[in-house]
Amino acid sequence: MNKDTAEQSIETLEEELQLYKRLIADLPFEINYYDEITNKQVTKKSNERTLTIIPEEQVKIEEEQSPFYFPMLEHHFERLEQFLKPLFDLVPHHIVIIDKNGLVTLCNQQTLDDFNVSLENVLGKPIQDLLQIDESQIRLLQTLRTGKEIVSEEVLDKNYGICNTRIIYDQFGNLVRVISLFHFLNPLKEAEKMNMIGQISASIAHEIRNPLTTVRGYLQLMSQEEIPIAADLLSSLLIPELDRANKIISDFLTVSKNAPVKRTPEKIASFFTHFKNLMYSEAMMRDVELIVALDEELTDTIVLINHNELLQVFINLFNNSIDSKQDTQPLVISIEGKKLNNDIHIIFKDNGIGMSESSLRYIFDPFFSTKETGTGLGLSLSKKIIELHNGSISVSSTLHKGTRFFITLPINNTN
């Protein structure tokens, strides 16, 4: 970032800061807010337009003090949201507010634009309807369940960005709203991927050069009659090495392509029955417990899929789980599925070694691998296949506790 760009960014942030300060100052009620990060307190009386910032050494914290305290009842807060909506529409980030039941009460224009939905289809509806991801991944609901606010947490699902949540209580200490401010960074992430093209090209050359060097070396020795030409050498080493190079190229081309795949209707329950039967012997030999648990309502649910390609996705995930097996406990792999609106939500999880946060950042990037012998194309290929099925895939993981992949696939509602 050059000097002019940095100065422009600082100027933009200063304008936003002044906007927020004017907004808070104009609110027609008393505010008493304590910030746990800076240990400062902001106060404002209802009949004044002046904010008072109390420094850290003068702050007196009550044991049960709420993060946001508003001396008003819930139905009064609805009027406040109507007042805030036009102002929040000016903010170039996602601002969403839900009530104690998880229903959306406010959604700013930037959120509506990025999700391509109308306000009428969002207000009063569950937040899951807007985000279209599993509720276990929704930070607003996480804050609602736990009562713990989220501060600058990086979100790594299909909506990449930085999330903050805050809880609002009424004058009696009852939770009335949870607010989320989400800095949507998908465009920035795509720009970073473009900058990786050079690195990926170098990785392709490196991965293909290894088997080709082996083959060339043996062919050169054969041509100089240093070693005899043997059929078992060709079948056991040279041909497999060429096949390995070809597979690397084929997988990368699949990751790169955007052409639609040929799909046919199939019951999702039948698909996973086939997958479980296919992996049964492997699971037995590896001493792995494989569990498939689909909700009953998915028994006759139809999806439009390319059976072999989608099967490859779950085989890749299965093999990754096998490689993550810990020595301290048996490996358990489970697949859970349920219906949510017009999608099937699948959770593929294991109790393996897990991954670090630094690895999660790049887990779907081509040629990134945590395994010494891995090409780093398995999960990139899986992600591409899911996207070509108009679905999504994301991941969460904790070291020494396991990994979860969250997959959504659209239901085929056509007769």
Percent range of helical residues = 40-55%
Overall mean pLDDT: 80
What Rg is obtained from the alpha carbons, in whole angstroms? 27 Å
Shape descriptor reads elongated
Largest sheet: 6 strands, mixed
Supply the number of helical segments. Answer: 12
Number of strands: 16
Classification by helices and strands: alpha+beta
Cα-to-Cα separation, first versus last residue: 53 Å
In terms of per-residue confidence, which ranges show pLDDT below 50 for 5 or more consecutive residues?
A: 61-66
Question: How large a portion of the residues is in β-strands, by DSSP E?
Answer: 15-25%
Order of helices and strands: HEEEEHEEHHHEEEHHHEHEEHEEHHEE
Molecular structure report:
41% of the residues lie in helices and 23% in strands. The protein contains twelve helices and 16 strands. It has helices at residues 3-26, 74-88, 109-115, 127-131, 139-146, 186-195, 197-223, 231-256, 268-285, 307-323, 357-360, 378-388; strands spanning 31-35, 40-44, 52-54, 68-69, 94-98, 104-107, 153-155, 161-169, 175-184, 264-267, 288-294, 302-305, 331-340, 343-350, 392-398, 402-410. α7 packs antiparallel against α8 (231-256), α8 (231-256) crosses α12 and α10 packs antiparallel against α12. The radius of gyration is 27 Å and the shape is elongated. Mean pLDDT is 80; it is low at 61-66.
